[in-house]
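Consider this today:
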Amino acid sequence: MRPTFMLTTALFLLSCSTNQVMSKEQEKLTVESLGGTVVTNPLTGTVSEIRMNHSRTIRDVDLAVLNKYESLTDLSLEGTSIEGSGLSALTELKTIEWLNLWDTKITDKGLREIARLKSLTHLPIGRTAITDAGLKHLNGMPNLLYLGLRDTMISDHGITTLLSLPKLIELNLRNTGITDASVKHLSQMRSLRKVWLGETKITVRGIKQLRRALPECQINLEEQ
């Protein structure tokens, strides 16, 4: 009886393995049908990146399928109509580091969902409808290294919130409403190594003050 049992077990395991492969392939096809691209890590064979840039078909409800990619580190939703409600489906992605939401429909409510992704290191959320109030949701994101706020309605009031991001190295504030009043708070962000301030209301005097306070920080004033 033992050989029969072993054969049955082997067939069962093979069936499970086959079903898993088919399931993963189906998930990949689903992403591709939504206009996305799946990138696999050549060393591990696991999915590490998904790009949905400018997809005209993906909706917030469709983000649930991405929750199955437990090894995902990079996700780009740039130029899509994502509003943010579907981001709650990504909370099981414990290794995600880069979430690109540039030029999406995301609002302050969406930032509340993003704040639950504690592993994030890079977060481009420029050209969206986020406000100063929404930035409060980013408090307690201990690993954030880059925050892109370009082309948003962020003002001096919102900058005070960023003081709670201890590891922030790069901050893009180009074409926001900040003034010299923000220099005081930016000067306290000792971890900063690069900040974009082009097309803001910060004066030459404010720039000089910031350079004295953060001599190791590169201040980019280009408008493009």
